[in-house]
Design brief:
The structure is a single chain. Strand 1 and strand 2 form a beta hairpin. The N terminus is likely disordered. 46% of the residues lie in helices and 12% in strands. It has a single domain, classed as Iron/manganese superoxide dismutase, C-terminal domain (minor pseudopilin epsh fold), CATH 3.55.40. The longest helix has 23 residues. The radius of gyration is 17 Å and the shape is globular. The protein contains eight helices and three strands; from the N terminus they run αααααβββααα. Strands 2-1-3 form a three-stranded antiparallel sheet. Helix 1 packs across helix 3. By secondary structure, the protein is an alpha+beta fold.
Length: 197
């Protein structure tokens, strides 16, 4: 259960670019709806329950909404305009990916398969377990909804939202095409920063 004692309220979510900046991968209409309606709804619902800790403890909706807020905050920062996006990471993160998965292409394939195979609504994450062996370990994790299989000891580096509201306006039911195109807007500088922090 998320810690409620002395918890500060969550800030209104912001994105680090304009609503048109991820086109043609994600349209202005879709990004506007996803950010200003869906993410804001999770944030407001979590904040409403912070003032009612007893009620929040009795409801799974608190962890659901907190998870939705946190994952979306990372998701927005994990993306950048396709005009400036890199094809893959560099430095220590690339070395760690190649060590863990054999190659960057193999990692990309495994991550995509994880995202494609989410049953219903959820996420695909690249996470780092810092206290796993001498150097830590990277792992790909599938999250159901926003909160099932999400553990505090996982440092989230990269996340992909595969709820229908993340792609349906642009891709209809073609989740596979959405995932393929999403790789063209990954902000590897942000992912590397998360890994190195």
């Amino acid at each position: 259960m998320w810690l409620l004692k002395n918890m500060e309220k969550f800030h209104e979510p912001k994105i680090p670019y304009g609503y048109k900046d991820l086109e043609p991968v994600i349209s202005e209409q879709l990004l506007t709806l996803h950010h200003s309606k869906h993410h804001v709804a999770y944030t407001n619902a979590a904040n409403a329950l912070i003032d009612k800790p007893a009620e929040a403890r009795d409801k799974k909706s608190f962890s659901f909404n907190v998870g939705g807020h946190i994952l979306h905050e990372i998701f927005w920062k994990n993306m950048i305009s396709p005009k400036v996006a890199k094809v893959k990471p560099s430095g220590e993160l690339l070395e760690a990916i190649e060590k863990e998965f054999g190659s960057f292409d193999r990692f990309k394939k495994e991550f995509s398969e994880t995202a494609k195979s989410v049953e219903g609504s959820g996420w695909a994450l690249l996470v780092f377990f810092k206290d796993h062996g001498e150097t830590g370990a990277l792992s790909i994790v599938q999250i159901e909804k926003h909160n099932v299989n999400l553990y505090p000891e996982q440092k989230i580096l990269l996340c992909l939202d595969v709820w229908e509201h993340a792609y349906y306006l642009d891709y209809k039911n073609d989740r596979v095409k959405y995932i393929e195109n999403w790789w063209n807007i990954v902000n590897w500088d942000d992912v590397e920063k998360r890994y190195n922090d």
